[in-house]
Amino acid sequence: RVMCDGASSSALEQFCLLARHARDRAAVELIKQALSKKQIYVVGELLSMPNMQALRNSEYAEYLRLLELFAYGTYNDYQTNREQYPEMNANQTDKLRQLSLVSLAHKSKTVTYEVLQKELFINNVRELEDVIIETMYAGLISGKMDQTLGVVKIKSAMPRDVRPDQVDDMITKLSIWKEEVNKLLRTMETTKKEAQECRENRSAETLQVKKAMEDRKASLKDRVVDRQPSDQGARYDDMELERPSRRLTSRGKRTRVQVPFLDSRS
Predict the structure, then answer these.
(1) Is residue 210 part of a domain?
(2) 5 lies in the same domain as 68
(3) What region, left, alpha or beta, does residue 143 occupy, with left being phi > 0 and alpha being psi -120 to 50 degrees?
(4) Which of 11, 37, 72 is the last residue of a domain?
(5) pLDDT one digit per residue (tens) for the chain, 266 residues
């Protein structure tokens, strides 16, 4: 992204160094060059330089207002108050339109072509889409165009400078955000603790159930053993021993029957 681009930071730093010794007309030339340079989109640091602020009460005040416009203004602001600003060149116009798109992206995650055409003063859809593509390519916003619906769906956008009169409001918003984050952290900590306690309770219950099952199994086993007669095995053994003797008795001496001899002669 541009805000994290080393080349952009280095370029702005060079202008800030030059601004320490630039006064009046030289300061104006620095402003023109900085606003025309494609790598520079954040100019708050340059705007805060004493020699830039010194232009406010000079004949070059309109250039300071132009620098402020690029810091936190929009192309609509420029068109609405044209008499307060000097004429812009093509590069400056394109850049201010891109920064205006960034401002709209901060207000809504979905920006329609209709709104963009109105805010950027562009009647041609093809020209508008070129501005959108260049803004995305520069890393100022990320998202995608939906040409069928005629909208730009915003995923993220680079931050812009804050107006001096908005600093207190920004501090208030950040304080509220900080408190909300702290509440969320406390809620997460409480939820974590409750989840840990629930897990420990379930583990204890599982152990109790397992122990109860083991005790029940042992109790049933003891009952089976207690109900079995102690002499049952002995009776079974006696029966096995008696059977062979019975067979021997039944197969003992055979009774011999004498059949009378019949004489065939008689």
Answers:
(1) no
(2) yes
(3) left
(4) 72
(5) 444 455 667 888 888 999 999 999 999 999 999 999 988 999 999 999 999 999 999 999 999 999 999 999 999 999 999 999 999 999 999 999 999 999 999 999 999 999 999 999 999 999 999 999 999 999 999 999 999 999 999 999 999 888 878 788 878 888 999 999 999 999 998 998 889 888 888 888 888 888 888 888 888 877 776 666 655 555 555 555 455 555 544 455 555 555 555 554 54
Q: Which of 130, 131, 133 is nearest to 142 (CA)?
A: 133
Its domain, for residue 64, covers 1-72
What is the tally of structural domains in the chain?
A: 3
Instruction: Report the first-to-last Cα separation within the chain, whole angstroms.
Output: 147
Return the SS3 of 144: strand
Q: Are residues 53 and 105 in the same domain?
A: no
253 occurs within a structural domain: no
Contacts of residue 150, defined as CB under 8 A and 6 or more positions apart, other chains included, come to: 112, 113, 114
96 and 125, same domain (yes or no): yes
In the chain, DSSP assigns E strands to 110-112, 141-146, 151-157
**What is the reported pTM?**
0.66
Domain closes at, from 153, 180, 205:
205
Instruction: Count the neighbouring beta carbons within 10 Å of the beta carbon of residue 234.
Output: 10
Residue 232 lies in a domain: no
